[in-house]
Write a structure and sequence with these properties.
mainly alpha; 2 domains; 4 helices; rod-shaped
Length: about 140
């Protein structure tokens, strides 16, 4: 197939064609490798941006809720003189803000929750106050 003068030219063309094909395959494989790495970097960046936006949104919502709560407390303080003179109901639900694992290992936990009952008796002296006490037993 590669005999004679024309055979040398054909041989050179086949070798060149195969070399170019090999170089293109190597370049394509490397490009696919780079694309896969870039995709991972882009995914990580998108996740980071999503987390950053979510944190900012949560902080914004918390700030708004805190503002509303402070306004409500300010209004409550201003109106407390009027509220105190009217009939009102207070619901007391005993609960200690303690981690569940600690609560499970505490002795007499329900009795400890119930220890604030003396404050309820002190508040009961107000004739305008009606108290509902939810017992932990």
């Amino acid at each position: 197939m590669f005999k004679g003068v024309m055979g040398v030219t054909k041989a050179a063309q086949v070798i060149l064609k195969n070399w170019r094909m090999h170089k293109a395959r190597v370049a394509y494989t490397y490009l696919r490798f780079l694309i896969s790495k870039a995709t991972k970097i882009q995914q990580a960046f998108r996740l980071y941006m999503f987390q950053k936006q979510t944190k900012a949104r949560v902080e914004e919502i918390n700030t708004q809720q805190m503002f509303v709560w402070r306004q409500m407390m300010q209004e409550f303080k201003q109106k407390w003189g009027q509220i105190k003179k009217r009939k009102r109901v207070e619901v007391h639900i005993n609960s200690l803000s303690i981690d569940e694992m600690k609560r499970m290992s505490m002795e007499k936990f329900l009795q400890r929750e119930n220890a604030q009952i003396s404050r309820i008796f002190a508040a009961g002296k107000d004739p305008n106050l009606e108290i509902i006490y939810v017992c932990p037993y």
